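Q: How would the structure tokens look for this protein?
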Amino acid sequence: MKKLILTLIAALGIATGAQAASEGIAWDKAPDNLNDLPALQHGAKLFVNYCLSCHSAAYMRYNRLRDIGLSEQQIKENLLFSTDKVGETMRAAIDPKQAKDWFGGNPPDLTLIARSRSGHGGTGADYLYTYLRTYYRDPTKATGWNNLAFPSVGMPHVLWELQGDREPQFETRQEHGHEVKIFKGWKQISPGTMTPLQYDQAMGDLVGYLRWMSEPAQNSRVRIGVWVLLFLGVFTVVAWRLNAAFWKDIR
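A: Here is the predicted structure in token form.
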């Protein structure tokens, strides 16, 4: 059970066409678009359309999306299912019993996925950005899909119509007396509805939204922090001059 759950956690992960070491592919750097409201809005749309059917974001309320520039009416018209209300949390549409039968366990909640998946290869956003871009067909797997960033992943490629079918290309080398496969790039088998550049940008938007969702107050915290540091800087100068004026006659 634990293994199945860990497999599902990778479901929103990341994989990409960059360089790879013999122990696995390198994580690509995710775009930094936390301050790009149109990108975050597009990411929210992708999340609702492609992720929310199976994955919940149970600690995020729909009305919090007003923080990324969406009005309550836009949220109701574009991002809510007919039975949901704008003040409710983002719950998955899948039935838990069916999910357990199909996947062996419920798909994990994604509210904090961008913060929980960091590792030696980079941030959680880097992992997710890579994972979402390195799916490929694998008829030996039950789902028909595999992933370079998370080999034998339990989640199918739900975005394949956007990306199309791709096949990873490897080069075999001898290292320390052993044959190892080095990832070299991708061969497009059939096109998707998006170009490779458009797909990468869309995944950047989706990952940006997941990153924002994991800490919606981050931009406000940084903005307030800058003002606090400026205040402390000015106060330090004032205190230093007051101290000098106070002690000048005593010395």
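Strands lie at 20-21, 24-25, 57-61, 89-90, 135-137, 145-147, 164-175, 178-191.

Residues 218-247 form the longest helix (30 residues).

Upvote if useful.
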